[in-house]
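Sample entry (142 residues):
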Amino acid sequence: MEVSSMLTNGAVVVAVQGEVDLYSSPKLRHEIVYWAKKKILSLIVDLDAVTYMDSSGIATLVEGLQLATKYGGRFTIARPGSSIQEVLKFAHLDKILPIFNSVEEALKTPDSELIRAASRPATTIPRTPAGRTVITNNGKAF
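Predicted structure, serialized as tokens:
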């Protein structure tokens, strides 16, 4: 599984690729917890390239939602494929977690104006603990 983060319009998009299972979900959890500790106002998890998710992946998403809710942030899912949508429905996450067809749609929700107003300049967002490069919406990497 690969995980990358990108700052765009004041939100952090965590893009996930591959299988999210007991072995790999700690990597996703680490990324989500990292940004939640920074109190990013909007965390969007892009599941477009996820091919499989088990209960540990579901637990990771629930934890992300709980963390964001504690500090008044938003935690949303974008672009889950049909098999991942089925998993989310089976776990009833579709009833408690905002799920969008695109990252752009998640960014355009009513809260997005608050997110943009409160966003910091990209240079103040640090690298993730694992040293992953964060790419901003202006194309600069740091």
